[in-house]
Amino acid sequence: MAEADARELGLEDADLAVLPTVYGPEAFAGKTVLISGGAGGIGRATAWLLGRLGARVIIAGRDEGRLEAAVVAMCAAGLEAAARTVNVRDPATIAALHDWIAAEFGGIDILVNSAGGQFPQAAIDFSTKGWNAVVDTNLNGTWYMMQEAARRWRDARRPGSIVSIVVVTRQGLHGVAHTVAARAGVVGLTQALAVEWAPLDIRVNCIAPGAIETPGWRVYDPEQIKAYPRSNPMMRTATTWEVAEACAYLCGPAAAYVTGEVLNVAGGAQLWGETWTIPRPAFFDGPGRRGNE
After folding, report:
1. Where in the chain are the domains?
2. What pTM does this model have?
3. In 54, 140, 141, 287, which residue has its Cα 20 to 30 A from 186's Cα atom?
4. What kind of architecture, by CATH, is found in domain 3-280?
5. What mean pLDDT comes out for the span 132-143?
6. CA dist list (Å): 229 to 115, 174, 205, 212
7. How far is residue 274's CA from residue 285's CA, in Å, rounded to a whole number?
8. 3-state SS string over the chain?
9. Residue 36's closest CA among 103, 106, 108, 105?
10. In 10 A of CB 79, how many CB atoms?
11. Rg of the Cα trace of the chain?
12. Any residues with CB less than 8 A from the CB of 89 and at least 6 apart, and which?
């Protein structure tokens, strides 16, 4: 892929190192943040932002090469960053990750669940393997990360904050029914845990991005991507940096009285229209079934 094309799919490290932010440079000083899926897209932008705001950032994921490249770039910019591989589908590897963090850094203060994945396909054609893979990563993997962090905070008698990246489930998002189902599960789980874990001083929230320019767009039909700006009343797509700034609010001290919420960062998409990741059926452009009778 040409460099110009790559830039259109998301922000590069050079951008993330200098983009302006509304937050003060020491807003997260003394905090340790774990970000799953931290090597790319929203996770990477969030890692850069929180690192620039003074946090020690630990990014985790499955691709060791991408993780190492991200850490090298962040450290070269003077940020405190580290990386570790993890398979969020496997609770044992998550426990091992936390053991390493505890030994090296004394534990975490904030967890950002940005790991996930899906593929565009008509739901009627999902294979059992494909469905299970998406649900296992996006729902089960998020739960395993949340539970392990919460257990560590409970046992250490320390507060914690969790933010999970989901999708705008109130808008028509079509062609990825498996991830809509899984992420809706995360929203429900978040609301339940916000109550259960309040006595532990653990806040649990979600961010629901709309059409965000990320490298993940590579899997989608270019013709569908062209329609994304019209998926919201602001008539544009957003950058990963805009989501990262929302994450900094929700996981940090400014939102100390916020839990169980879903913050839509979607240009109002939750109130408007639809997004198709696969070709929109011609059926919806005609008179419909009744008109054809």
Report:
1. 3-280
2. 0.91
3. 54
4. 3-Layer(aba) Sandwich (3.40)
5. 96
6. 24, 15, 26, 10
7. 13
8. CCHHHHHHCCCCHHHHCCCCCCCCCCCCCCCEEEEECCCCHHHHHHHHHHHHCCCEEEEEECCHHHHHHHHHHHHHCCCCEEEEECCCCCHHHHHHHHHHHHHHHCCCCEEEECCCCCCCCCHHHCCHHHHHHHHHHHHHHHHHHHHHHHHHHHHHCCCEEEEEECCCCCCEEECCHHHHHHHHHHHHHHHHHHHHCHHHCEEEEEEEECCEECHHHHHCCHHHHHCHHHHCCCCCCEEHHHHHHHHHHHHCHHHCCCCCCEEEECCCHHHCCEEECCCCCHHHHCCHHHHCC
9. 108
10. 20
11. 19
12. 136, 137, 140, 141, 144
Place of tokens 């990963």: 240
Q: Between the CA of residue 276 and those of 28, 174, 272, what are the distances in Å?
A: 37, 5, 13
> What is the DSSP pairing of strand 160-165 with strand 172-174?
unpaired
220-252 pLDDT, tens per residue?
Answer: 667 777 888 888 999 999 999 999 999 999 999
78 vs 287: CA distance, rounded Å = 60
Residue type, 11: L
Q: Are 159 and 254 in contact (CB under 8 A)?
A: no
Contact 200, 172 (CB under 8 A): no
For residue 37, name the pLDDT band (cuts at 50, 70, 90). Answer: very high
Structure tokens at 88: 């969020």
